From TrEMBL:
Species the sequence originates in: Cardiocondyla obscurior
The entry's keywords: Lipid biosynthesis, Lipid metabolism, NADP, Oxidoreductase
Name listed for the protein in its UniProt record: Fatty acyl-CoA reductase
GO cellular component annotations of the record: peroxisome
Segments passing through the bilayer: none
């Protein structure tokens, strides 16, 4: 029914708890957004997909322009890493 009838998707779901594990954050935020995009691509009457970011801010920039900033790492590789490593191994890469 969703694929047939939905015309607008607003995606703003995310975890903004900064004490969650890196694995949880990647799977909940990055992979879930990818999955929403995959679902939206199947929607036959979709006219808009709106993504509302909850936490992105390029803090090292003195002024923030209304533009898409390049990611610091490939999001697809991050999903692959999070899916393939156990939580303990992935936490080794978390800043202390």
């Amino acid at each position: 029914m969703l694929i047939e009838r939905v015309t607008i998707v607003v995606h703003g779901a995310a975890s903004v708890r900064f004490n969650n594990s890196l694995k949880f954050a990647i799977l909940t935020n990055t992979r879930a957004t990818r999955d929403m995009c995959i679902l939206a691509q199947k929607m036959k009457n979709l006219v808009a997909f709106v993504y509302v970011s909850t936490a992105f801010a390029p803090a090292n920039e003195p002024f923030i322009d209304e533009k898409v900033y390049p990611p610091i790492y490939d999001w697809q590789k991050m999903i692959d890493i999070a899916e393939s490593l156990d939580e303990h191994s992935l936490n080794i890469f978390t800043a202390k």
